[in-house]
Amino acid sequence: MARWAPDAALRLERAAIELFSERGYTATTVPDIAARAGLTTRTFFRHFADKRDVLFLREREFPAVVAGLLAEAPAGLDPMALVLHGLEAVAAGDLERWRGDILARRAIVRSEPQLRERELLKSAALAEAMRDALVAGGAADDDAALAASVGSVLFDSSMEAWLRGPDDVTLLTELRSARERLHRLVSAQRSDPSAARAAS
Amino acid sequence: MARWAPDAALRLERAAIELFSERGYTATTVPDIAARAGLTTRTFFRHFADKRDVLFLREREFPAVVAGLLAEAPAGLDPMALVLHGLEAVAAGDLERWRGDILARRAIVRSEPQLRERELLKSAALAEAMRDALVAGGAADDDAALAASVGSVLFDSSMEAWLRGPDDVTLLTELRSARERLHRLVSAQRSDPSAARAAS
DNA sequence: CGTATGATGGCATCACGTGTCATCACTTCG
DNA sequence: CGAAGTGATGACACGTGATGCCATCATACG
C-alpha cells in the first residue's frame, strides 16, 4: 500500500505544524500547507476531514489501542482499576520520547479555541472507547461511563502537569499523583464539615 | 437598551431550532435562519460567533452564575464539597421546567459531531470557571482543577441519566446518585484484587 | 504489453464568516 | 419642536473552508 509518496499525510502534518508555528493558525491557509508539502488543496482534504484535523493525525489510533489494552487487562478488576491499568500502560510507554513534539503541538492547540475544541472531542472519543471496552468486559453501563470519564480527566490532568513540570518527572509519576489527589478529594468531602481546605 | 425588537437573538434561536429539527443541521443555511427570523445573514453573525453558537444562547451566563454560587457558598468546605454544593444548587433550581426544550436541543446536538464538539467546549469553559472560583477561594491549583473537572463529569453524567430516565426522577436525585457511584468506584480500586466487578 | 486500481491534480461550486459603509429608529439635548 | 447622537440593522464585497466531479498519472497485475 501507499505508492507514490507513502507519507503524504505525514508531509502535510509537518508542513502544517511548521506554518502554524511560524505565522499562526488563522494566518495559514490550506493551500499554503499543501504547497509546502508539494501537494494540492484537494489532496489535503482527502487525508484530513478539515483544517484542524491535521494536528491530530497521531491520535487516530488511540481509541483502538486503549480498547485493546483494556481487553488484555487481567480479569477480576473493577472498572476504575481497569481504566487506571490501561492509562498506566500508556503512560509507561514510549510517550516520554515525544515530549518536545507534544509541547510544540500543545502550544498551537492552546492558541486557538477551535483547536482546543477539537482536542476535547478527541478526548471524549477516547473516553467513549474506554467505556465501550468496559461494557464489553461486563461492567455496568453507568459505572463504565463514569470510570471512563474520570480516567480521561485524570490522564489529561497528569499530562498537563507532566508537560508543565520539570522534565525529570515522568508522566507515570504524575498520573499516580493525580490518582492520589482524586482519592483524597473524593474521600474528604464525606460528611466532615471540619475538613480544612488547602491554603494557597 | 434594545430598541427595535429586543429579542433578535431569541427569534434567531427559535428559527434555528425549528429549521434544524425540520431539515437537519447541515441542510439549514444561515440565510434560511435569518429569513425565518425576519433578519439578515449579517445580523445573525452579530449575535452569534458562528452557526453552531445559536444552540448555546442559554448557556452564556452559566459560568458567571456558577462562579457566583461558589463564591457565596459556606466557608470551611474542601474544593470537592464546594463544587458539589454549587452543582446541587443548580440542579435544585428551575431546570426541571425546561426538560422538554433541553431534550429537543439535545437531539439536534447529538445529530452532528460539530455540535457535540461545541458542547464539550462549553462544558470545559464551565469547569474552568469553577476552577478559577475555587482558586479565588484559596484552594490549591491542582486540587481546584481536578475538583472542577470531576464536578463537570458528574453533572454531565447525571444530566444524561435525568434526560434518559423517567420524568418523575429529579435531576438532583440523579446528581446524588452519580456522586455515590463515583465514591464507590474510587474507593473500590484501593489495593484489593479480590474486588469483583459488577456483573451485567 | 495491456488493463485495473488507486492516489493525485484541476476545476467548479456553495456555505461560512468578516470588513466596510449606508440606513433607519430611537434617544437626548438645545 | 427640530437637530445631532447612538446603536442596531441592511446591503455589498470578499477571502477561506470544504465538497463533488472528472481527468490524469503511477504502480501492480495478468
TrEMBL record, chains A, B:
The keyword Transcription regulation applies. Gene3D superfamilies: Tetracycline Repressor, domain 2 (1.10.357.10). Keywords: DNA-binding, Transcription, Transcription regulation. Residues 6-66 form the HTH tetR-type domain. InterPro entries: DNA-bd_HTH_TetR-type_CS, Homeodomain-like_sf, HTH-type_TetR-like_transc_reg, HTH_TetR. Residues 29-48 bind DNA. PROSITE patterns: HTH_TETR_1, HTH_TETR_2. It holds the Pfam family TetR_N. This is TetR/AcrR family transcriptional regulator. Signal peptide: none annotated.
